[in-house]
Design a protein that fits this description.
Length: 234
């Protein structure tokens, strides 16, 4: 579904991604692990069209995404839940969800909003509430729900557990699994390596712009380097 080949991305003269290559198959959950500054968010921003690589290619369902504007990337079937949620704080829950469907003009938007409310009943309870007054967990639900309103085939999730209490982290990851079972492929960027590897089929480890490790989720979870660096084991 997604093929990334020899991707080089710069911020000015800073070489942020140094020739990374990876793939995400249809129906998979693939996780991208790494410490702060490794290049995880840069990777997702490049896939979304927010950053332009100097070298390499990104292909989605056989077509290159290079040079395509972010809103056209969404139109092609990729949505991005950014780090920090980035909801519209002054808009209501419903208005935020409507913004997620801005590329659509079909008659099923209300139906899809009802589907989001089925996934996140808390949002239905707060549908008229100003989004900036929601709790952190509710804002994360809203950010994911907003992305689903575009009917993505590939969902990019950037640190969905950041700043959440453990019980909410479990809830968010259960929801990610449920969304995947409904047919949405997921590329998950996450510092909570244990949780990410518990739901992913495969994973890649990103270190200072390179991908030195990849493998099945269980293989990575058992890897001594991964256990020491990302799972808190000595």
């Amino acid at each position: 579904m997604l093929e990334v080949t020899d991707l080089h991305v710069y911020y000015g003269e800073i070489h942020a991604l140094k020739g990374i290559s990876f793939r995400v198959g249809q129906g998979e959950i693939v996780t991208l692990l790494g410490n702060n500054g490794a290049g995880k968010t840069t990777t997702l921003r490049t896939l979304s069209g927010l950053l332009a690589p100097r070298q390499g290619d990104v292909r989605f369902e056989g077509s290159s995404l290079l040079g395509i504007a972010p809103h056209d990337v969404v139109q092609k079937g990729i949505t991005h839940v950014p780090e920090g949620r980035r909801i519209f704080n002054r808009l209501s829950v419903v208005e935020n969800l409507e913004m997620g469907a801005y590329i659509r003009a079909d008659s099923a938007i209300t139906q899809d909003m009802d589907h989001v409310f089925t996934i996140f009943p808390r949002l239905k309870e707060r549908r008229g509430q100003v989004a900036g007054t929601l709790s952190g967990g509710e804002q994360q639900m809203l950010a994911i729900g907003r992305a689903l309103m575009a009917r993505p085939r590939l969902l990019l999730l950037d640190e969905p557990s950041m700043g959440l209490a453990p019980v909410l982290v479990e809830q968010i990851f259960e929801t990610v699994l449920a969304i995947n079972r409904q047919g949405v492929t997921i590329l998950l960027v996450e510092q909570n390596a244990a949780m990410a590897l518990s739901i992913a089929e495969r994973g890649y480890v990103l270190e200072t712009g390179r991908l030195p490790l990849e493998g099945g989720a269980r293989e990575l979870a058992d890897n001594p380097e991964v256990r020491r660096a990302y799972l808190g084991e000595a």
